Amino acid sequence: MDRNALLNLLFEKDSFLLQLDTGLRAKAPRPTPQSSQVGSASQSQISIPAQSVQLQPSQRESRDQNGGSSAAQATEAVSRDIEGNTTPIPVVPIQDDKTFCPLMAVSRFPYRHIKGELSQTVARKFFDGGKFWERTWDIYYIQPPSRVSPRALLLVPADQVRAFFKEINTALRCNLTIPAEKQGMQLTFDNPNLPSPKFLGQCTSRQMKDRLESQIPPGSTRLSAPSGMDEEYLAYERMLDRACSATKNKKTSKAKQQSRLQNQIRTVECLTRLQSYFGLRSHTDETPAVDGDMTWAGQTYKQIVAENHDVTESARTQILLDVNKPVPYLFWKMPIFVCVDVEANERRHSEVTEVGISILDTKDLVGVAPGEQASHWRKHMRSRHLRVSEHRHIVNRIYLAGCPERFDFGESEFVYERDLGAAVLAAIQPAAVHETGSSVGTDESRHLVLVGHNVAMDMQYLREMGVHIDQKPAGTAGFIDVVDTADFFRMLRREETHRSLAKVLHELEMTGWNLHNAGNDARYTLESEKYLDPTNSAIRHRNKYAIIGGGPCGLTFARFLELAGLDYVVFERDPSPEHTPRFQGGTLDLTAEGGQAALHRAGLTTEFEKLARRNATILTIQDAHGNHRTTVGGADNNRPEIDRRQLRRLLLDSLPSHRIRWGKALQRAELEPSHKGAATAQDWVLRFADGTSESGFRLIVGADGAWSKLRPLLTPATPQYSGKTFIEGRLSPGNPAYAAALDMVGAGNSLAIGAGRCLCVQQMSDQSYRVYMGVAAAESLTRAGGAADVADMAKARRTVEGMFADWAPHLRAFVAAAEEPWRPWPLYRLDADVFLPGAQWTRTRGVVLLGDAAHVTTPNGEGVNHAMLDAMVLAERICAEIEGADGYEYDREKDAAALERAIVAYEADMWPRARETLVDSLAMEEMMYVEDGALQMIRMFESFKDFKEAA
């Protein structure tokens, strides 16, 4: 039986394979004697399975020398596709530049990489309705490592994609290009020592692509990193990972991002609880009192405050970070940390051989300084090692090296298997923790926190012994928390798998002796709770992000950096959170797509809902004479109110207190005189009003409001006076006009509009009312010596009351009753044209603006929402570029370039929003100061599809 007959016999059940030309018979300039010996086989349509094709050097040399695409160069054989159409099938196409694109990512190009109307045009003419698949594509495949993707990755030559884009560009007069390799759209296989794509076949329909894909052999040839080239292989793996990500369904990617975010939120929550347990921060759910009676170098904390009444949060932070002094806060819940490690027979997992228990009682830490590497605290740990008498001869050797006889923190104790559970329970009871004669004794209120490394398995073994963490061991209030150090470190590192205890210890620069002894493992696991050591920064980047401004915008961005595990510091001009001016901000309404979305992504929705006033969304509109009175909004209006001070406090409580530097008013930013070449953030020096300076930052983020000191680095544009000024007063519950305000406004807002004037009354969370008296007037009105200069309140009151003299009596009464002191608030805005493409905006490397610092506008209800959205978008762009904090290999220049890409992407999102908001605010501003403004506003609300008048 000759070769052709044999192949026909092998593949007679698969007509598709019989019709497939694998390219083994490349067309040569002349027939050779060897080819003639095959006889009629040279004219047959017999093919060899695609996976057996290997491009040989002789084939590389025999290709057509005339250039052109691989499909045009290849010798064509005629076959029939699965629909019966005649389709040209190439021999083995040859790639000169060894560059490919992910096929499925290319097929979705207009939907992922083109914005605006052009996306729809390109999709309609070249992609929709199967048009993309009607082209002739040379398909290759490669098997990524299993941890990257379980499926083969389909590729097409980049030359074919470029030719396709050139055709689109010519037809539509656009300029499409293949995105950079960072987005996974372009792969170069130029390393001969690493796997390269294999040719699969040629397709002219989606069905043919699916059929070809089904013929790919299982991924049995997946390779691991070759020896001696780890870095090259890791780069190769990252390239494939990006390409696989580019082909994935966007919804799936979003779901994974959400899951990743939830993991990060859990990490921060765990960190927050641990810091509270160890007195490193106050806990807001309970009285966050500082331990005033705790001695501190011979003084109590109260004495320190008494001697320096202007003590700030910054000073408290400095005290906190001094590890040679006790922590400043009470130990929240005063827990007992119980760390358990269970070792079992590796041949018979149901046989427990050892149990290690280490305990740290926070009562023992009161007044004790942590010391370097928490050395003083570690002295108070008590460790026990229980060995099962029946299994004392068992030593694990197959999968790991056990050492049950080498307990380094005391003497091992032998117990019978039947008594093991009781022995464990006895060990974790407070009465057994302390030495005989201790004054602490048992306490029914003591809380326990279980600690373990991969603790789920240990908990299972404990249950089998009769120890249940959902039950209360005698003398305790039960377990209130579980800390898994393995999961904790995995989430902090954003890794797919858990690190072993040995690797975690190495990461923390700790030495672990005789590991896989249960007693030793329990001790080291308890010590490895990183937050026993306030000075350890192993999981942080060396270079910080500097955030200028501690308002809602800057703190929202800080929250996202905290979730991402990135190092940062916030510089805030207020001397402390308690010194926030009473007049700084009224009540804010957070939209679903703005402030609420940012809080949700930041994991703060629950805290927000505790403060949100959803009953305060009603707005009463009327003109200066009380006519056209209409009430809009209500329970269906998803714009709940929250005081600005409450929102700020909520965000502050979500951050470690040492992240905020209070009393730091930025004066200017200037370049280091010694810097050379293109400046990065590390070349900028921040000069503060207190005479100090800071430098060496990874990124400088301006969230410092309307008069940002960083804005001049990016644009010469400055806020211009709008011609309007608000003057703010207050109505407390004891005010004679309070009852009228309660009747007219209730829990919501009221807006009265007249020619050149407006009056806004809004209720705050403390039931008081803010009164905003708006007037169209010269900028000098409230300046020193002006007619409404609040330094002379009698003159200011006469002036303002005179401006409202022709208004309805019930409205004039609020002006007359507005309590002092008044606050003048001249309204400024940027010109919307600042955000036209290329207009008055330049890039300064390492500097970016958020919120009012970027796009200050007059009040229109959207300012804080866009500011918090700015923070969320920038954080997302940064995390996308640096690939997840600690998994990112830091290099100054590469990092600066990555952050620049993130900023450019953020600004591309922010500029259109900023311009739209400025335009809308100008329209709102004009409506609020005209005679028929109330009627215009009512008609505007009535034009909304979901409008309905409030009851």
From TrEMBL:
Residues 336-527 form the Gfd2/YDR514C-like C-terminal domain. The keyword Flavoprotein applies. InterPro entries: FAD-bd (IPR002938), FAD/NAD-bd_sf (IPR036188), Gfd2/YDR514C-like_C (IPR048519), RNaseH-like_sf (IPR012337), RNaseH_sf (IPR036397). It comes from the Eukaryota. Residues 26-90 are annotated as: Disordered. Gene3D superfamilies: FAD/NAD(P)-binding domain, Ribonuclease H-like superfamily/Ribonuclease H. Residues 34-54 have a biased composition (Low complexity). The keyword Secreted does not apply. Keywords: FAD, Flavoprotein, Monooxygenase, Oxidoreductase. GO terms for molecular function: FAD binding; monooxygenase activity; nucleic acid binding. Residues 546-714, 845-885 form the FAD-binding domain. Residues 55-73 have a biased composition (Polar residues). Pfam families: DEDDh_C, FAD_binding_3. Transmembrane segments: none annotated. This is FAD-binding domain-containing protein.
